[in-house]
Amino acid sequence: MLRMQDVTVTFPSGRALDGFSLEVPTGSVVAVMGPSGCGKSTALRSIIRLVEPNSGQVTWMGEDVTAMSQSQLERFRRGVGLVFQRSNLISRLNVVRNVMLPMVAVGKSVDEAHDLSMRALAEVGMDSRADEDVRGLSGGEMQRVAIARAIADHPSLILWDEPTASLDPTLVVDVLSLMERLSRTLEATMVVVTHEIGFALRAAHNIVLMEAGAVVEQGAPDAVLANPLSDVGRRYARALAYAAAPLKENVAAL
């Protein structure tokens, strides 16, 4: 289980997390949602201490991440897959070498890293492009390669930080569909920071709604969005109703 308890993060510009708490059962998918600037990405990055909490505790499978030495933290991070808003691929490397690089960097043989990378690329539908220059890929294809890189070494925890935020709207559904499939097939715990309500309803076991650095509501997605108790929840429910309205005249009633 992943547990965050009373985590506080303060930047020079102000407090980003204010007593943030979260529990993610092993093997489950949790979507973290809320308005821009509410602390979602900070919460995600605090899990692996890319952002250092000022106070509070993060534990993974009973181990206190916040108390780990640098070497312990590095070992922990090797078991975590990360997918960010941008693919962050290395332009001088081809597709398969971009996926291989993190594994080779931590000591895996080139042959083993290549085999694992090709399996991951097949999982995301990019194995036929393995030897291509990444600069020739579309934004959605680059994000697929980034996802392959994140899942190649079979991480037990995968963190997704708004992975469709930088994509053209026409590419978003393609990546969300892949994420949804992976959420069902991979044996991994997943925390997904997203604005995509449809994905949360379809793929997440629970959603956590944030505002001003704290959790304001959480629960099963359909229950929360059907009967929201917070202002944030009500805004998401209205957005969902707007997207589902079949005719223009129905929008005025929302």
Overview in brief:
The chain is built from ten helices and ten strands. It has 254 residues and is of the alpha/beta class.
Write out key terms for the chains shown:
single chain, 254 residues, alpha/beta, Rossmann fold, 6-stranded mixed beta sheet, 4-stranded antiparallel beta sheet, 10 helices, 10 strands, globular
Structure, described:
By secondary structure, this protein is of the alpha/beta class. It has 2 domains: 1-79 and 158-220, Rossmann fold, CATH 3.40.50.300; 86-154. The protein has helices spanning 40-47, 70-78, 95-105, 110-123, 139-151, 169-185, 197-203, 221-226, 231-244, 248-251, and strands at 2-11, 14-24, 29-33, 55-60, 63-64, 80-83, 157-161, 189-193, 206-211, 214-219. A 6-stranded mixed sheet has the order 6-7-8-3-9-10. A 4-stranded antiparallel sheet has the order 2-1-4-5, with helices on one face. Helix 3 runs parallel beside helix 5. The longest helix has 17 residues, at 169-185. The model has no long low-confidence stretch (mean pLDDT 94).
Sequence-ordered SSE layout with sheet pairings:
Elements: E1 2-11, E2 14-24, E3 29-33, H1 40-47, E4 55-60, E5 63-64, H2 70-78, E6 80-83, H3 95-105, H4 110-123, H5 139-151, E7 157-161, H6 169-185, E8 189-193, H7 197-203, E9 206-211, E10 214-219, H8 221-226, H9 231-244, H10 248-251
Parallel strand pairs: 3-8, 3-9, 6-7, 7-8
Antiparallel strand pairs: 1-2, 1-4, 4-5, 9-10
Helix pairs in contact: 3-4, 3-5, 4-5, 5-6
The SSE order reads: EEEHEEHEHHHEHEHEEHHH
CATH superfamily of the largest domain: P-loop containing nucleotide triphosphate hydrolases
Total strand segments: 10
Question: Which structural class best describes the helix and strand composition?
Answer: alpha/beta
- Our count of helices gives 10
Assign a percent range to the helix content: 40-55%
CA-based gyration radius: 19 Å
C-alpha geometry: globular
Give the mean pLDDT. Answer: 94
The largest pleated sheet is described as:
6 strands, mixed
DSSP strand (E) fraction?
15-25%
Which CATH class of the largest domain applies here? Alpha Beta
Give the strand order, joined by hyphens, for the main sheet: 6-7-8-3-9-10
